[in-house]
Amino acid sequence: MPEYKVFYFNVKALGEPLRFLLSYGNLPFEDVRISRNDWPALKPSMPMNQLPCLEVNGKKVNQSLACCRFIAKDIKLAGNDDWENLQIDTVADTVNDFRLKIAVVSYEPDDEVKEKKLVTLNNEVIPFYLEKLDDIARENGGYLSLGRLTWADFYFAGIIDYLNYLAKQDLTANHENLRKVVDNVIGQSAVQDWINNRPHTDI
Questions:
Q1: Which residue stretches, if any, does this entry annotate as coiled coil (predicted)?
Q2: Domain 4-76+189-197 fold
Q3: 3-state percent breakdown (helix, strand, coil) of the chain, nearest 5
Q4: What is the DSSP secondary-structure string of 154-169?
Q5: Below-70 pLDDT ranges, the chain
Q6: Phi, psi (rounded to 5 degrees) for 61
Q7: Residue 20 and residue 186: Cα distance in Å, rounded?
Q8: b/e per residue, 112-124, with b = 16+ CB within 10 A?
Q9: Regarding the domain delimited by 82-186, which CATH topology (the fold level of the hierarchy) does it fall under?
């Protein structure tokens, strides 16, 4: 069995999908949480100087979506053929696009510019993505792809607390199908065990 380590800060955010997937697959991993004070010294040792970072048998790789996809193939949460994998990738990338559109406004340093961007984000961008993603989840019976559990569900469920924090709202509150996606992931016994025992963080 490969030896896994997940390197990330002491938050859920982009590291949590990896932790969810490894937990679901009963793949033991070392959860390495890096403090902000320690990060400058460790940064040069990470691929592209970025986190999260997944280490597999001593080899480090970055890019959280690629890492999720890699783990998913080992725990039967990927597609059964290229077309199915494309369906999963498409919705996972859409969720990531949604994250980036929220993040670019949330992290805007100029308060005046941020206020203007928030109007568009809250009135146009967020409603658009939530409606589209909720429709996808409804069509797939509470999943984001293929009508069954895939790593795209884990990616969404893993980052939803982070998205809620950035958007300053409960994004699934009025979207029952997306709520089902989250529940279908966190309802897995191994994931629930992880949630019950992980370090407490707000995001």
A1: none
A2: Glutaredoxin (3.40.30)
A3: 60, 10, 30
A4: HHHHHHHHHHHHHHTS
A5: none
A6: -135, 150
A7: 9
A8: eeeeebeeebeee
A9: Glutathione S-transferase Yfyf (Class Pi); Chain A, domain 2 (1.20.1050)
